[in-house]
Amino acid sequence: MHGVGFVVIGDQKNRVIKWKVVNDRICVLRIKGKFFNYSLINIYAPTNDKPDDDKDAFYERLDKTYGECPRHDVKIVIGDANAQVGREAFFHPVIGKESLHPRTNDNGLRLVNFAAARGMAICSTFFARMNIRKHTWRHPNGESCTQIDHVLVDGRHFSDVMDVRSYRGPNIDSDHFLVACKIRARLSNVLTPRTARIARLNVQRLASSDVAAEYSRKLDERINEDAPTGNLDEQWGALQSIVNTTATEVIGTTRGRKPKGWFDAECQRVTDEKNEARKRMLVKGTRRNCERYSELRRAEKRIHRRKEREYDETVLAEAEAQYNANDKRRFYATVNGVRRKTTPSPVMCNDTEGNLLTDKTAVAAR
Question: Which of 45, 52, 134, 275 has the smallest number of CB atoms closer than 10 Å to its CB?
Answer without folding.
Answer: 52
